[in-house]
């Protein structure tokens, strides 16, 4: 039988009712939220594609694991299970638990970044760059140029580091001023784009030549491994676990938000091989997170996290996960909706500048589009453009080349029927795009403005 898509590799055991507000109430809700989808109440959202962070559906084994929570303040059995699982899957010697990924970013930046530091990476991520800058560092984008082109379907590893850009930076500022290179696997703001194994290997070799640490942002590393298996020569017969192990052999450490490929609602860690870095991290984690044996997580959360890390390596799980995203992307692309191509691993990204060409970037077309999709359908999405990019230290807006709206699929949550509804809503929004107006700030916080900023329409 010729099937359009792979059915869900699970069956439904519990349901959570959904409701959709009448359009008049949606208009009032988004206005009250300052046209910021982050400020909408969850009860006013029909299908929630804001993020895949902590919004996953846990398995029956993970739920069973919650009942095995050892809530000791120190030395929890669940911590030892989580620690050994990370060591087994990734191969790092040391693990420091944190409440989520940005807790790990904070520890790493406080320990290694100082005024005058430069931190290269394959495109910024919002919280990562914020921690680096708050500690006096400067982020430098060394991703390949193809990553900044939204519709470029033939480039299969748009997350790759440009080795020449990286080496030019080393020669310009000196390796001693580069505490580490941050390699995202996958690259969120490029559209969930993967990094090839070849590139990871080359980046590691160049870094070792100059004595620079390689630290992964491995929040979605299983998705990256799947793309390597599907797209890179020599890996189609390897298991996801084997590919993951090789990936991490080209890193000195990693930060992770367990709320993504850990398939849990909370949790994260900082992992490393270096003894001195581990010693400093365990001292600092007590100040910001908790004891080095829980780091802000409960015992039950650590147990679910450990189980989720292993479940994520299942090929049927990750194949379905990525194919769901691809299904939505293809449906939109076939309807003429401008999206980032190839479609990434965790989300479909709409090209807001191409969607709303009449709205200048200083009027935040991605922010506008996310609000309009909610008005049209009750579907919540997220801006990933000029608002997320923020401002330079001098107060000027960044104006990134990619002005995107992210449609992020939580793991094991929505069906293909939900995705059909989302696609149809966006197509309807596209048909009335000429009537959509720009936005301006009425409240702009100094850091990470996309979370709590408020807007009104430009007349």
Could you characterize what this model shows?
Helices cover 41% and strands 13% of the residues. The model has no long low-confidence stretch (mean pLDDT 96). With 459 residues, the protein is an alpha/beta fold. The protein starts with 22 loop residues before the first helix and ends with a strand. It folds into two domains: 23-52 and 315-457, Aspartate Aminotransferase, domain 1; 60-311, Type I PLP-dependent aspartate aminotransferase-like (Major domain) (Aspartate Aminotransferase, domain 2, 3-Layer(aba) Sandwich). A five-stranded mixed beta sheet has the order 2-8-7-6-5, with helices on both faces. Strands 9-12-11 form a three-stranded antiparallel beta sheet. Strand 5 (180-184), helix 7 (197-210) and strand 6 (213-217) form a beta-alpha-beta unit. Helix 3 (77-90) runs parallel beside helix 11 (299-311) and helix 4 (101-112) crosses helix 10 (275-288).
